[in-house]
Fold this sequence. Notes:
This protein is mostly helical. The chain has 21 helices and five strands.
Amino acid sequence: MTSSIAVFTSDLRLRDNPVLHAAVRAADQVVPLFVLDPGLVRTGFAVPNRMAFLADALADLDAGLRERGGALILRKGDPVAEIRRVADRVDAAEVHIAGGVSGYAGRREARLREALAADGRELRVHGAVVTAVEPGEVVPAGKDHFAVFTPYFRAWQRIEPRPVLAAPRRVPLPELSGLRCEPLSAVTALAPGDTSPGLPRGGETAGRRRFTAWRRSGLGGYADDHDDLPGDATSRLSPYLHFGCLSPVELVRRAQESGGEGAEAFVRQLAWRDFHHQVLAARPDAAHTDYRTRQDRWRADAAEIAAWKAGRTGYPLVDAGMRQLRHEGWMHNRARLLVASFLTKTLYTDWRIGAQYFLDLLVDGDMANNQLNWQWVAGTGTDTRPHRVLNPLAQAKRFDPDGAYVRRWVPELAGVKGRRVHTPWRLPEDERARLDYPDPIVDLDAGLARFKRARNRD
């Protein structure tokens, strides 16, 4: 009987999973394996919100495998060492894994390939698992990646997504007596602490249920409604994409089958996700250093940073976004753009401070999308208008005109009627005095002038 190993990483699903599909086809028996790396603590990935979602996803994956005659083997330790031990235990000829774009994933793949080769085994790395189009599949002439989204998207659209793969009917597991398997509690133990109270449930089952419902009721209006803050019309699928509970290839295919402007707008967002992955694959240092330096001399006002994190800046729409982040481990994309612009441009604070705080809380936080979105807003990344500044009051007028989003997340202002909720400092003095809400920590015009001076822009 031949054996293979399917190593799960950011592809925690049974449906449309090239790694599992190939491992099942390659051998008589398959070991589905996930290795919990304690080194994730050092990288900043292991935080309570993501570990809780990960535990859900692994439990759901294990249940699906057991329905098919298999089981998920969970190990804890150095991934290369643990994969090598399991491969030796079952005499696996091949180990299958999804390609990754982070520096961490690249180092893991290189080490694993060398170690397995020394044992006479083969590592097979699969593309279009984490992304719809593999990084490096489309490149401009003479360069290793696209630095601007629009030409990337045109090239991306010319690529026909691979066929969607069905979940395997059977995943025959070899005899594993004596093979150590960690309990699921080891996942959450890696990052003890409180999770956000509104954290979504993880796993392929929950993700597919959410997508099915949203495709039916929300996809058609996505083009018009995705920036509507109180309408909350986005898909909320980013955590499931981040952990691979849903396949980006399948989402592209299903959206295209639905058709219409909403589907086109949604597919464009999936392409943005791929765009950031191909940038990071080519420039892994962009996770921590400026993609395009502006020679910024960032400010570091501890009180202002603390107020931003706490949602107490005095600008209700900014604060509403930050409160949503703490409560749900997720934030509406329009709010993400606004709070990032406020920190990096109005307060002129280093984007890395904001990116790290997001990674501390976001269940969908990853190096490609989080870091490069922060750089895009800060003007150090791929934005073709790097000096744009989002004004909280203008954003409120356009995307939360009646203040419903603010009243939902800033209860101190729930009793303020209409658009006045966005400018509480302008309320009559007696009404203002009754609110437990701070004055603005910065004047918007002064912040804008400071930023223009710093970037030498008129």
